[in-house]
Amino acid sequence: MDHGRPEVLQGTLDLMILKALAALGPLHGFGIARRLEQVSDGVLRLNEGTVYTALLRLGQRGWIRSSWGVSESNRKARFYAITPAGRRRLAREERGWKQIAGIVDRVMRLAPEKE
Amino acid sequence: MAAPSRLRELFSKLASLARRRRAEDEAALDQEISLHLAMMEERFRAQGLSAGEARLQARRAFGGVQQLRESHRAGRGFAWLGDAGQDAAYALRALRRQPGFSVVAILTLALGIGATTAVFSIVRAVLLRPLPYTESDRVQRVGWKWDDRSPATPALSPFKFEYLRTQTKTFESLAAWRSTVYDVGPRGTGGPATLLRVSTDFFGVVGWRPASGRVFSDDEQVPGGPDVVVITDACWSARFGRNPAATGSTLLLDDRPYLVIGIMPHEFQFPEVTSPVEGILPLALRADPADLGANYSVLGRVRSGASLGRAELQADLDRTFATLRRERPEQFSDAHEGAVALTFEDVSLTDVARPLWLLLAGVGVVLLIACTNVANLLLARGTTRQHELALRNALGASHGRIVRQGITEGIVLASTGGLAGLALGTAGLGAFLRLAPAAIARIDQVQLDGVVVAFTTLIVAVTGVLFGFASTQMAGRRRVEADASSSLRTRSASETPSGRRLRQCLIGVEAGLAMLLLVTAVMLSSAFYQLSRTDLGFDPAGVVAINFRRVPAEFRQANRVRNVERELVARLERLPGVSGAATTSVAPLGERGYNMPMTVDGRPDLTEGAVEWRAVSREYAGLMGLRLQAGRWFDSDDAATGRAVTVVSASFAARYWPAGSPLGKRILLGVFRGERRQGTNPRSLEIVGVVSDVRELGPTRAARRTVFTPQTGESGMPVFLVRAAGASADALRVAVRETDAALPEPVISTLESRLASRLAKDRLAFGLTGFFAAVALALTAIGIYGVVAWVVRQATREIGLRMALGATRSRVLWQVLWRGLLPVTAGLVAGGGLSLVASGYFVGLVVGATGVSPGVMAAAAGVLVFTAVFAACVPARRAMAIDPAVALRLE
Lengths: 115, 891
Hints:
With 115 residues, chain A is an alpha+beta fold. Chain A has helices at residues 4-24, 29-39, 49-60, 84-110; strands at residues 27-28, 64-70, 76-82. By secondary structure, chain B is α+β, with helices and mostly antiparallel strands. The two termini of chain B are 67 Å apart.
C-alpha cells in the first residue's frame, strides 16, 4: 500500500473544503462538491462521495459543525459551517502549505548535486 | 460483588448509547447521499440526458455508496480516539515495519514486565493483602520469649494465657488455639483433615460467626464435654455437598461422631495454619501453673479505640507480665523471659517475607535492565529515524505533535510488551506455584487480580512515556529544527557524541544492575551449597520414616504400643532390601520437635523450660549414624534391668557440665525448677553417653539441646525408621497392615525428601535469584551487543580510513571492543560497590549467607566480563572484516 500519496491528497481536500466554507459560508455537501469543481476548472477529478468522508473527519476535529436546514430546492439538507478553530487551522494549513512547497522545491533543487 | 455488576451495567448503557448514536449517524448519511444523488440527477437531466442516463451518470460521479458508508463507519469508530488513535495506528505500522527491532524490544519488555507481575502478585497475596478477619488490623498475636538469644515461640503456656486474658487492658478478647490433624469419615475414606481447637473467645477475636447454626455453649467448653464441631464452608462443600441439613448431622473424626452445630461462612479463612481448616472444636484449657510449655497459639482482638501500635501492645504485655513476675517468680527462669507482641509476618512468614521482598527488588532490577535495553534500542533507532522526523517536521508537524507521536509509540510498544508480559507472568506464576513450598502461608491465594493488573498497567504507562521521550528527544528537537535541510539530504545520519555517551551510560547502568544481581546470586548460591552440606549430626541418606499421624485411642496404651513396635520392627527387618529398623518419638526433619522441661537432679538452679526429648529404640543410633563422643549408647541390659538411663547431646553436656564429665550425673525430665509438670512421671535418669549435636529440624535451625531416652511405649505410637535401599513404600505398607489391620494408613517419606522440604524456602530464594541474574545477564549481553554493533556500523568509514592508513586489524578490534567494554567496566565497579552496600539486606536470606567475599565478587565480575566480551566480539569481528576500499566509497 502506498501511504504517502492519499495522505497528501486527503490533506489537500480538507484544506480546500475549509477554504470553500470560509469563503462562501455554510454549504451542503452537494454545494461543496460544486464549488470544488468550479475552482479547479474541472481538472480535479474526484468521487464526490469522498467529500462526505472529509466532512466527517473535519467535524470530528471540531473544525466544522453541521446543522439541518432546507435546500434551495426545498429539501431537507445538512449544512456545514466552519468554526473558529477551523479558521485558525485553515490559516496554519495555508502557511504550512507554502512551507512544504518551498521545501519540496529545495529538495528538488538539491537532488542533482548528490550524484 | 457489587462493583463488577455496576460496571457491567455502565458498559451496557454506554454501548447502547453508542448503538443508537450510530444508527442516527447512518440514517443522516443515507439522507445526505440520496439528496446528493437526486441533485446530481437533476443537473444531468437539465443538461439533456435521459432519466436513466442521468441516474447512471450521477452514480458514477458520486462513486461507491457502499464504500462511503463503510469508510464512514470506520471513521466514526476511531473518532473518540482522535489524534491518539491515528498515532496508535501509525505506531503499530512503524512497529510492523521493523520486525526485528519490535520482536527484541517486545520480548525484552515481556520478560521484565512478566517477571515483575508474577512476583508482585505473590507479594500481594502473601504479604500485602489484609488478613481475612473482621477489622483485621485489630487482630494481634502473642508469643513467648525464653531468653534474649533465641526467637520467640509464637505461643503461650495455658497458665500465662489465662493470666493475660484476665489481666490485659489492651485486648478486648483473647483466644488460645491449636491445630490438630484428624482422620475424617469412616476409617480410611476421608483422609486426614486439619481442625482447630479453640478457646471461648475465638469467634469474637476473628470476627466471624457461623453463617448457620451456633457457636459452642458454655457446657460444651469444659473437659469431657460433648463432642461438637463447627465446620467450615470448605468442609461443608467437600463432605456434605452443601446440604443445609448438615447442621445436626454428625462428622466422624478419628472414628468418633461429632455433632455438627454450625457452619462458618465462606469468607472465614484461617491463614495462621497453612493447610485449609475443615472444622473448629472447643478447647478446654486447664490453667495449670506447672505446665510451662508454650503450646497454645494466641490470637487477640485489640480494644477498639486503643492504640494499635506494636510498642503500645508490647508495653501492655510487659506491664501485665511484670506483675506476674512479682506474684509468681517461679514461672520465669530467665531475666529476659516474657510475652511479645507478634505480627502475622513474624509468625507465619518468618523465612518468607524477606526473600519475597528481595525477589521483588530483584525483578525490579531485571525490569530496569529490560527498560534500559529498550531505551537503548529506541535511541539507536531514533538516530536512523532522524530523517523521517525531520521530514515530518518540515511537513508541518509541530514539535509537540512529534513528541506526542513518540510517546504514543512508546506506549504502544510498552502495552504490547505488557500484554505479552502478562501472559508470560501468568505462565511463570503457574510454574512458580508448582515449585513453591506449600508451607508458605496464603500461597494458595496467589492470583492475577485487578490490583496486579493495575500494577502492571502502571509499569506499562511509566515505561511507555519514558520510551517515547527517549526515542523523540534524541532524534527530535535540536537537529530537526536546526538541520532540517541537512537531515533531509543525508539518509545515513550519524550519531552525535552526546548520543553515544548516553547510550554508553545506559550500558554502564545495565552492567551495574546485572553485577548487583550476579553478586547476590553467587552469594546466595554459595550459601545454599554450604547449607545443603551442613553436618546434621546424623545421616539421612537411605532412611525412610513411617509415621502414623493419628492413631485410634486403643493404640495409645503403652503395652499395645510396645506390641505393635516389636511386631512391626521385626516384620520390617525381614523385608528384602531393608537393612535395619528403629523407632523414635518424633520424625526427624519435620517442622517441629517435642520438648520437655528439665532439671538437673539435686540442682533446681540448673534447669530449663524446654529441651528436645526423643524416646528412641536401641537401634536408633546405629541406623541414624549418631556419633558417640563419650560413654556408651543404650544396650540390652538397660531394658532388661530397667535402669533409667539417658544419652545427651554435646551442647546439652557443655551447657550444664562445661568443665567436668556429665557421665554418671542425673537429670529429671518433665520437671522445671523442681516443680513437677502435671501428667508426667519423672524419673531420675542417669547420663550414660554423649553424642554429637543433631539438627533434627534441619540445617537452617541451630542444633537444640537434646536428651535421648530408651523407648518405653509411654510416649505414644512411635515413628518407625528403616534403612531401606530397595524396599518399596507398598511393601512397607503391607508390613504395617499385616502387623495390625486396625492401624491407620501411615505417612511414608524418605528423610532426604524431608530434608529437601526443610530447605525448600532457601532453595526457592536462591533459585529465583539465580534465574533473575541469568535473565539480567542475557539482557545485558543483548544491550552490549547492540551498542558495539552500532559503534561498528557508525564507524565503518573511520575504521576503513584507519586501516587504509595502516592500522592493524587487532588494533582496530581492540578499539571497537573497548568502546563496548568501557561502560561495562564502569558499571561493574559501580555495581560491585552497590552490592557491598546492599549485601547487609541479603545476609540471612539463606541461612549462612554471611556477606560479599572477594571470591564471590570475583566470580560475579568474571561472569559479567566474559559475557560482555563475548557479546562485543561478535560485531567487533565484523569491523575487522571491513574492506577499506568499500568503506571509503560508502559515503
